[in-house]
Structures are given as structure tokens and as C-alpha cells.
Amino acid sequence: MKHKIFLKSKKGFFGTSKGKEHAFGGQYMPEILYPALQELEEAYYKYVLNSKEFKRELRALYRDFIGRPTPLIYAKNASKILNNEIYLKFEGLANTGAHKINNAVGQVLLAKKMGKTRIIAETGAGQHGLATSAACAKLGMECVVFMGARDIKRQFPNVFNMELLGAKVVSVESGSQTLKDAVNEALREWSKESKNTFYVLGSTLGPYPYPDIVREFQSIISEEISRQTKNFFKGNPDIMIACVGGGSNSLGFFSHYLKSSVRLIGVEAGGRGKGIGENAARMDNPNAHLCIAQGYKSLFLSDKYGNLLETYSISAGLDYAGVGPQLAHLKEIGRVEFLSALDSEALEAMQFFAKTEGILAALESSHALAGALKIAKSVKGQKILVNISGRGDKDIFITAKALQKERWKEFLTREIEEMQNHHTKQN
Predict the structure, then answer these.
(1) Among 18, 246, 277, 399, fewest CB within 10 Å belongs to which?
(2) Residues of 19-42 as b/e, b for ≥16 C-beta within 10 angstroms?
(3) 127 or 91, which is more confident?
(4) Is residue 104 pLDDT above 80, yes or no?
(5) Which helix (H) or strand (E) holds 372?
(6) pTM score, two decimals?
(7) Which CATH number does the domain 67-97+219-400 belong to among 3.30.530.20, 3.40.50.1100, 3.60.20.10, 3.90.79.10?
(8) Is the pLDDT of residue 421 over 70?
(9) Structure confidence by residue, pLDDT tens digits, 288-335
């Protein structure tokens, strides 16, 4: 590899501003938040990196609350069909149904060590909000989750569960009413009240030190894989594939293999097509530019003035205009490859692995599976690992509508009729 790989940020940046490389990351925030970020950085080094007690407590929560390790599954039937050895890291079996809980538990525990009493978070698909709500319930913290109004409508099951866990869900009505707007509102709230409030950011983005913190907590995924693969084969896998929104599941999955020769592939949301507002693919996209937004410098889908463009994906968790700074760095130096999957391809991949392996993958993870189906056509006899970052239960209001529209409509109509009849009888 001709460029240095930044496994951790250097002074808040990945890469270098010298030569042809860019420095991605940084800390571009209102002055009022710099003391809070400095406090967070100090706590990160004190507890997360250097406290044996913190690490013991976190490992106990990983084991006894989250249910780690999550399994590495040999996809025997799919392997036979695809002429490759396919393995699935099933984060969907973690408590709350996705990888997001790894980071949420870590940050809420850190907040408690820092003496904070109130947690705020943003969420897109709802999995980070759900995970943060569960972590707060477990550790006894007040929880407020900001979520775009559009995402609330398409991810109601997660909203219901967040509220069941005791969280207050705040609907964000501004902008496109999706993840980027939820992030903006969470940052605005943090600016107003940071003394007792801790912002649990859900992905490997935002101002330093968040990209490092989130990657650190999510690296438990690749740490487990490095042990689990020994039960199946010698050496490393040949190819590892993960979906990419902000970057938390992919960097957690890739972390222990960045300095290896393993081929690493990220799959973005190709949406409905290549036009503006039809997808959320940032890599190799003429509409993606180096910008500063939401506290960090990276690639964003934007106009020439730096205004973020509308995005779209069937998957709420991938529907975001930017990408984490470390992934932007890894793309620029050629360490991680990127491709995209259309909505239709993600749905096809979800159905294929459901029918061949008995796994219901989330729509986010189904993009990674779609990538695996594409890659498997061009290689043979390779050991291919795919990160199933979450379970598909949460997506039933989207997948059922897309795959069985009439039957789903009939079911919902009956439910509404039964609710109305029950209400009439009570009155």
C-alpha cells in the first residue's frame, strides 16, 4: 500500500493535507461546545483507553446485557449456489437487534463515569435510538432521541419500542426530515445544554473524538471475528463486505483487518438511480464533494456551495448525505473498495438469504448481501465474510409493502377495522 493507513485519527484527522491526500475529520463546532468536546476527549483517554475497571464493566455488559459474542455462521446453502464460501457475522442477534448497541452501551457507561445525568441521541432507522434507549434504561439515565419525521413514519416499530423503554422521541420537522436533520437538532440541543447532558452520537462521524470513540466500541465485531474464523479455516478471509451509511458497522467489521491483505468492500445505498435525490452513494459520485458539515470534514452529497443535497434509500439507516472521515480516508488511499446496491437489489438479496439460510437481514445489511451476490459472480472459491449488521423485523412496514402490497394492505385494513369495532363496543 503506497499510503499510510490511519488506524486512529492524528490530532482529530485521518490522512494528511500534504500532496494529493486530504485530511478528513476535525472538530468544526460552535465555540460554546469546545469545552464539552475537550471534556469528552479527556474522558475517552481516561476511561475507554486506559481504565481496566471501565473495560471490565463494559465487557460484562457486552456479555450479560448485549449477549456477545454474536455468532459467525457458515452459509452452507448459499455457498453451494454461489460457488464461494460465504460466512455471515450475525449482529442481528445482539440485544435490540443490531450492532448499534455496542456503541450505545459504551457511550452511556462513559457518560455515567463523567457524572452526566441526561442522554441525547439522533437516529435514522431507529436502531441507534433504540439501542441508546435500552442502554439508558439499563444504566438508569434520562434519554431523549431526535428522529426525522419522515423516518418516524417509516420506522414506527422502533419508535414504539424506544418509548416503551422510557425514552422521549422528538420529531424533527425541518429539512428532509431524515437523519441529517436529526443530527442537526441533536447538536443544537447539546449546544444549549452540555453541562449535564451527554450526546451519544451513533456513527463514526461528527467532530473529534466521536469517530474514534464509535470505532473503538464497534471494533468488538472484528475482534470476535478474528477468533471465530479459526473454527472454520486457517488464516484470514479473502473478502469482507459491509454496508456503509455513516460507517459504524463497517469500521467495526473492518477494524482488525485494515493492515491485512484482506479485500475490504463497502456497499452504499444506490436507491432508485443515479440522479440527485435518488440515492445516498457518496463514493465515485460526481455530486459528492469535500465539505465541512455537522462538525467534520468529509465527502458529502452537496452542491458547489456546500449545501447538502436530498438523499434517498429504502433503508433509513443508509439515507445520509455524508460518510465518516476514516472511510473517506480509506477510500482515497485505496484500502477499501466501494460499490452501491439499488433498492431492488437489496430486496432480492434479503429474500435470497432468507430462503437459503433462514436469516431475516435488515434492509441496511441487505445492501451488503447484495454486494456479496455481485462479488460472488466475479470470483470463485473465495472465503467471503458479510456483516449482517441488524435483523429485518424493524423493516416489516417497508418490506411487506414492497413485496406483498395487496396482502399487507388487507392486513392493515383489518387491523384498523378491528380497532374501530373495539372502540365502538367500549363506548
Answers:
(1) 18
(2) eeebbbbbbebeeebeebbeebbe
(3) 91
(4) yes
(5) helix 363-376
(6) 0.95
(7) 3.40.50.1100
(8) yes
(9) 999 999 999 999 999 988 899 999 999 988 999 999 999 999 999 999
Q: Kindly tell me if the per-residue pLDDT of 367 is higher than 60.
A: yes
What pLDDT is stored for residue 427 in this prediction?
67
CA-closest candidate to residue 251, choices 188, 171, 336: 336
End-to-end CA distance of the chain: 73
Grouping H, G, I as helix, E, B as strand and the rest as coil, residue 356 is helix
* Contact call for residues 162 and 130 (beta carbons, < 8 A): yes
Q: Alpha carbon of 288 to those of 19, 85, 135, 323, 350: distances in Å?
A: 21, 35, 35, 10, 28
What is the per-residue burial (b if ≥16 Cβ within 10 Å, else e) of 229-251? beeeeeebbbbbbbbbbbbbbbb
Domain 30-64+100-214 shares a fold with domain 67-97+219-400: yes
Mean pLDDT of the 377-394 span: 96
Rounded-to-integer distance, Cα 309 and Cα 298, Å: 15
d(CA 360, CA 92): 9
Strand-pair category, 72-74 with 85-90: antiparallel
389 is catalytic: yes
Per-residue pLDDT, 3: 61
Residue 233's region, left for phi above 0, alpha for psi from -120 to 50, else beta, is beta
Fold of 30-64+100-214: Rossmann fold (3.40.50)
What residue has cell string 484470514? 236
Instruction: Pick the catalytic residue from 91, 122, 185, 345.
Output: 122
Q: Is 100 among the catalytic positions?
A: yes
Q: What is the mean pLDDT of residues 134-151?
A: 96
Closest CA to 367 of 346, 347, 384, 348: 346
Closest CA to 141 of 107, 169, 174, 175: 107
Strand partners, 239: 263, 384
Question: Which residues, listed in sequence order, are joined to residue 168 by a DSSP beta bridge?
Answer: 144
Q: Can you tell me which residue has the cell 412496514?
A: 397
pLDDT of residue 1: 42
Q: What is the pLDDT of residue 5?
A: 83
Q: Which pLDDT band, with edges at 50, 70 and 90, does 6 fall under?
A: confident
**Among 89, 100, 112, 180, the one annotated catalytic:** 100
State yes or no: is 274 an active-site residue: no
Domain boundaries, given as residue ranges, for the chain: 30-64+100-214, 67-97+219-400
Instruction: Answer for the pair 214, 325: CB distance below 8 angstroms, yes or no.
Output: no
Crossing angle (nearest 10°) for helices 52-61 and 100-113: 140
